[in-house]
Each structure stands twice: as structure tokens, then as C-alpha cells.
């Protein structure tokens, strides 16, 4: 309750007391014991956070730190796809997947809501293999007392490799990656190289997910919907690879509360205008909208194949090492199961770098 609301409550309570209780005291000869005056009613009980029942999930995994709840996008909204298509094997196994929400245990003092975007081709919950590829990081988020929402969105294609890079005709599309990211996030048809229907846009899917849970009795302890739109300014956002740069876009153009990036933050330049040659995507160079870099944190491996590109973007944005971004080197890398992974994946999955991830996403700003 805000301070002015508390003040109004005290004032209204005093008015009620003076109008009704004081005359009664007077008629009974005072306020001493034995007057028979009932005590004031107790304050309403404080309703603590309640983890939803696993029955709301399409499938779930109970962990010591909380519940991983996977929800099929088409169950939340029938127009939303669970995968890109059935035209090829890649279409049916790469990208999209099920949404995942990491719920801390009942009674947890929730610190906030964090929205995480998976990288290119990945899935929050992979229905083909029945696993949670980001489980290590999700457990870290649970331990930090955050409700984490992994939105399954249109990530079937890489922005820099498939959609705005490689093919010279796409390099000639002005603001290619900026338009692609806007369309993937909002579902608004602004890109000529990406096809993201409204129902596959990240914001629409997040709204549908909130409605789905509300219809089953769960309300988020923190409201982040305003007039039918996501209020990004009260949400921490982050992601890995393609998802990291989506988070940066939300930080710049939607004023997200904070941004954390794992192995991301760079988009390829286009060729318009040809001179002077651009070294970063238009939206990153856009000086009409100022990004508050003090809200941004990043973690990157020096062994990532895109390390130099990420650092060039950080430097352009004014980010400084050990303040806005942390880098590490520790090859060979492995996930929690001991499987060998590269530097690009290690930034999200190697257990040795837990402290860097937690500080980037859940540390003070």
C-alpha cells in the first residue's frame, strides 16, 4: 500500500471510530473495562504468494528450488503455434516449443518477475525430447526468488544468419534486424524478411499466458499488464544469443526495467546507406532513442566465436568491462551433466559461472 493510501486508511478509520464508537462510550459511562464494547475487527490477513498447482501445466518438473511449469502455447491461445511447421524435420524440432514458468515455493517473498528469451532454434521446453534445456539457469533464478517466464516465441530462424545476414539481398534491406526484432516481439507486420503472425509475437503470447493462468486461479504477485499491453518498465528481461538481443531491444525501445544479456547484443549492419559504411545494425546506431546502459548487464565468454562482435557492440553502447559486462575464459566448458559445450553455450549453462549470471540478471541496478 502506498503512503498516501495508508494515510487515507488511517483517516477513514478515525472518522468511523469517532462517529460510532465515541457516542457509544459516552452512553455507557466511559471506556473502562467491562463496558461490553467489542474490540475493533482484526486487520485482514496478509495473503502470501501461492505457487500454482502443477495441474495448470501441460507438463511439469518439481525441483527443490521450485516448480518448472511448461505450458503449450496452443493451449494458452489456439492461434499460437507450438512449432514453426511440418514442412521439414528442422521446422518440427527447432525453435518455439512450450512456454516455461519457474515458480518458487509457496510463501516465498517474491523479488520480481523476470522474462527470459531463448536463443535461435532453442526451446524453453522441448516437446520432442521432453527436457528443459535452460534448467540450470532457471534453478538459479528460483534461488534468487524470481518468478521466471520463458516465452516460446518465433525463434525458428537466426536474425543474423538466416534473416538479415548471408544473403546479399537481405543486407540491402534498411534496418533489417530492427524490423525483424520488432515483429518477433510485437507480432506487428513491419519486416519484409520475417513472418511472425500476431499470435506468435512474444508480447501477445505473454498476455495469453497471463490470461490462461488467471482463468485457473493464479495471479502474479506483481502486476505487469496495463490496458491490455505488457508494461515492460516493471519487468526484468534477459536472454541468450538471439534472445539476449531481443532483451536489449526491449530495454531501448520499451524501457524494460533492466536487461541482462548472455552471449548477445550484436546485430549485423545493412548496406543502406552505403557510405559511410555501418559497422552495426541501424537500431543499435539509432541516436533518436537513448538506451540507459546503467540498466544493462552482459556476460560473455572470450571463447565465443562472436566475442569480438559482442565487444564492439558493448563499446559502441558505452558499456564498460566489470561494470556493465563481464567476460570469462575457462575452456573446456561443460554443462551440469558433464557434457562438453562451447563458449557460446557455457555462458548460460556452465555451473562455474553461476555468480556472473545471477549478478547480471538479479543484481541491484
What do you see in this structure?
The protein is α/β, with parallel strands linked by helices. It has a single domain (about 65-360), classed as Alpha/Beta hydrolase fold, catalytic domain (Rossmann fold, 3-Layer(aba) Sandwich). It has 13 helices and 13 strands. The strands form three sheets. It has a nine-stranded mixed sheet, with helices on both faces. It has a two-stranded antiparallel sheet with strand order 6-7. A two-stranded antiparallel ribbon has the order 12-13. The protein is globular, with a radius of gyration of 25 Å.
Topology:
Layout: H1 3-27, E1 59-63, E2 66-71, H2 73-76, H3 89-93, E3 99-103, E4 112-117, H4 135-143, E5 146-151, H5 159-163, H6 168-171, H7 176-186, H8 202-214, E6 225-226, E7 229-230, E8 236-240, H9 242-253, E9 258-262, H10 282-285, E10 296-301, H11 307-317, E11 325-328, E12 333-334, E13 340-341, H12 343-349, H13 354-362
Parallel strand pairs: 4-5, 4-8, 8-9, 9-10, 10-11
Antiparallel strand pairs: 1-2, 2-3, 3-5, 6-7, 12-13
